[in-house]
Amino acid sequence: MTSSVRYLSTARYIDAPNLSIDVQGVTFAYRDLGPRNGVPLILLNHWGAVLDNFDPRIVDGLAAKHRVIATNYRGIGASGGIAPVTIDEMARDAIALIRALGFEKVDLLGFSLGGFVAQDITLKAPDLVRKLILAGTGPAGGKGIEKVGPVSWPLMIKGLLTLRDPKFYLFFTSTNNGRRAAKAFLGRLKERRADRDKGPTPRAFLRQLKAIKAWGQKAPQDLGSIRIPVLIANGDSDIMVPTANSADMARRIPGSQLVLYQDAGHGGISQNCADFVPKALTFLEA
């Protein structure tokens, strides 16, 4: 990886070069695409996700109008260091990364674990964030978040037994509509053939789960102090971060917008990417 070409624009996420930057002695991996003007959009992804777990349809759709930077957490994929066991550390890492990239103002899109991190970034560095998109996520101390592990393990085992990616069961509903969407999504994640990111290590995977459990047990944060535009999106049947958390955040964040997709689960924005991308673009450009 190299940071020497980080300002090159590319049309498609599957072709975006793997880049890296040193942040306080730790190498962070990222990909960078889209136009160079305007406020960049930083993508923060789910538990165990590496660069190849970002949905290329969502990234490409957003990068048609915005500079988009997808990144790994410390200790995940090609990023160096040891994976943190708190959301606080992940947020501080992300703030340091954003500043190392030279940005004074960014938009954030946080999915699942990334939504926890994005909220914490916004509360820690409010002047850094212009707009916030929270997808498939929930607040500190949110309903059922501490149970992500117990909910996930049986479906991960089911994935192994059925030779399917566990996200087939974890991110989508068990209806015909959900199953079709799951197959399409998992197919998109395999489109990139060359220069794929490294998968997460079991140690990093378990350390991130500790951070998720701690977030679920954490005292609620003052979401009412978030005074920037916020878009919240999820499926109506999220079993990983229960959908009730999306409604809870929408009630607590002044002026926030809530989009709930019917017959959709944790991966609702990917299942409905043809609807979500235009909504996100309208939100970012308003």
* Widest β-sheet, arrangement of strands: 1-2-4-3-5-6-7-8
* Unreliable residue stretches: 1-9
- Roughly how much helix do the residues carry, as a percent range? 25-40%
**Cα-based radius of gyration, to the nearest Å:** 17 Å
Tell me the total number of β-strands.
8
Structural class: alpha/beta
Instruction: Name the overall outline.
Output: globular
How many DSSP helices?
10
Largest sheet: 8 strands, mixed
Termini separation comes to 35 Å
Q: Give me the CATH superfamily.
A: Alpha/Beta hydrolase fold, catalytic domain
Element string (H = helix, E = strand): EEEHEHEHEHHHHEHEHH
Q: Report the top-level CATH class.
A: Alpha Beta
- What is the arithmetic mean of pLDDT? 95
CATH topology: Rossmann fold
Query: Which strand-content bin applies to the residues?
Result: 15-25%
In short:
This protein is of the alpha/beta class and 286 residues long. The protein contains ten helices and eight strands.
Describe the structure.
This protein has a single domain (13-285), classed as Rossmann fold. Helix content is 38%, strand content 16%. It contains ten helices and eight strands. The protein has an eight-stranded mixed β-sheet, with helices on both faces.
List the main descriptive attributes of the protein structure presented here.
single chain, 286 residues, alpha/beta, Rossmann fold, 8-stranded mixed sheet, 10 helices, 16% strand, globular, disordered N terminus, Pimeloyl-ACP methyl ester carboxylesterase, AB_hydrolase, AB_hydrolase_1, AB_hydrolase_fold
